[in-house]
Amino acid sequence: MTALGANISELEIKRFWYDGYLVLPGLASPERCVALRQIATDHLKENIAPVEYEAEVQYPGSPASLESEGGGTVRRLLHAYSRHTAFRDWSTDEQVAETLRQLMQANQVCLSQCHHNCIMTKQPGYSSATLWHQDNRYWSFDEENLISVWLALGDETVKNGCLRVIPGSHTLQLDRGRYDAAQFLRPDLQENKELISASRVVELNEGDVLFFHSRLFHAAGRNLTDEVKFSAVFTYHEAGNRPIEGTRSARYASVPI
After folding, report:
1. How far is Cα 18 from Cα 12, in angstroms, rounded to an integer?
2. CB 55 within 8 A of CB 49
3. For residue range 14-55, what is the model confidence (pLDDT) as tens digits?
4. pLDDT digits (tens, 9 = 90+) for 197-235
5. Which CATH number does 10-49+75-256 carry?
6. CA angle at residue 161 from 104 to 89, to 5 degrees?
7. Helix (H, G, I), strand (E, B), or coil: what is residue 146?
8. Is residue 18 within 8 Å of 168, Cβ to Cβ?
């Protein structure tokens, strides 16, 4: 275990493990955000692969198909770590690495190239809403104990589809019947309605960074503004918490940081 350094306080560590998330304001400089946002804008304009389209996920509000109106709307610019050195540098930044080491109380953390590792591009008009889910329901590791790092490359508000979270939900063990076939929380169940009623909106300013546990329930609305919302998102795990062989989580090698 590492000693607590100056990066974050013991109180912030305790808050993370109590709520399942922590926001560190202004962790990325305005200059860095501008540079990353410009790269993302250029890659989006040129449709540089690999990308994920809104039509492919079929979430509420997404186009019906790739051939329908808005079908070419990109949801995520994938493989951010290898996409550009600027995103690689951010994802392995020492401030990010030290914060993760403190939160995980680990000597070594690794970046997963299989999950998130992307620039979220929530666009006007055809952006979808993401329903309530836990990321670990789609991932396969020895332990369900990973942390995602979400950098706001511009202001994130309710209007442009910021994240919502349910504090403390990373500690819950829910029956399978509370999920639908796509592994989202079923909104028709009273117990789920009560759980969702405790949710919080996580609005971020440019440069703010959200650290959230992989078991934390989260969701996001649609972008109802006229501007694209960009977020750089990476996921990390303690070096001893290994992806299970033969699963999607082991497709690409993790990167020690």
Report:
1. 10
2. no
3. 999 999 999 999 999 999 999 999 999 999 999 999 999 999
4. 999 999 999 999 999 999 999 999 999 999 999 999 999
5. 2.60.120.620
6. 45
7. strand
8. yes
